[in-house]
# Entry
Amino acid sequence: MKNILEIIKKKKTQFDDLKPFSKTFQSNMEEWYKIELTYTSNAIEGNTLTRQETALVVEKGITVEGKTIVEHLEAINHAKAYKYIQSLKLDNITKITKQIILKIHETILQNIDSQNAGRYRNVPVRIAGSTVILPNPLKVPDLMEQFVNWLHNSKKTLPEIAIEAHLKFVSIHPFADGNGRTARLLMNLVLLTGGYPPVIISNKNRKQYIDSIEKVQLIGDLSDYEIFMLKSIEKSFDNFLGIIELKEKNIKTEIKLIKIGELAKETKETVVTIRYWTKMGLLKVTKYTEGGYQLYSPDAIKQVKKIRKLQKEKRLTLAELKGII
# Structure
């Protein structure tokens, strides 16, 4: 666990060094997380909407044939709940209140179970397929007060406090439904207060995720849970940093590409010659603009000079050159 925390610390430094992000990039990432978190969190709970279908429902308001009304509402509500925790822009864990947690849950169950949305459960609950015994409903209000007090006064730091908050919350199971989705959003709210990217738990890891929680609840063994959650946080950094790296690579590639006129000027050839050599297959077009203009890699400058040199020194025809270049 110590090694994973050290890795996360280094990646957090890497992440912070790249800030501030541009408004456009930040907005794009927020939209991506909104869909990805909505899809994965709902899928863990049994929602059958695919990633693409989730995006259509959330972004376009399109109804997907063969899917239930509840599945559509779960997608819409989770996206709203994520936007809500983003809008809070909290910079300190002590600003997370009971009212905020209830608001997250109310949004999750809006128009699905309005009677219980944003209200603690007043009935006993069980987790399907589990032997874990959850707290008596009469104890829930006090347990949640204790939970919020712990959150405000804990000496633990990020990211450990985020994953412990998630575990404590699901173990209280304060609501009749929507506990898992609320717990994951709450964990991400805690992470966001410390400038961490949101953590995504994939549906393909559902069993490992649930088993690790149950192991703590049944026998008090935290090892699997901590490792699983910390690796999930590490992967979230990898996702974000990978997207940034790809974006920068694309930008650099775009900057390097040159127009046919620039290539002609750099090589002291005519545009007609460059165009003809391209048509012959001696030069490769790297990209076309939306207007249909040809863009070449800077390597094309060397290629043009090489073609001209071989023509002069070896007296080769274009057809012969095509066979050796």
Remarks:
- The chain has a mean pLDDT of 93.
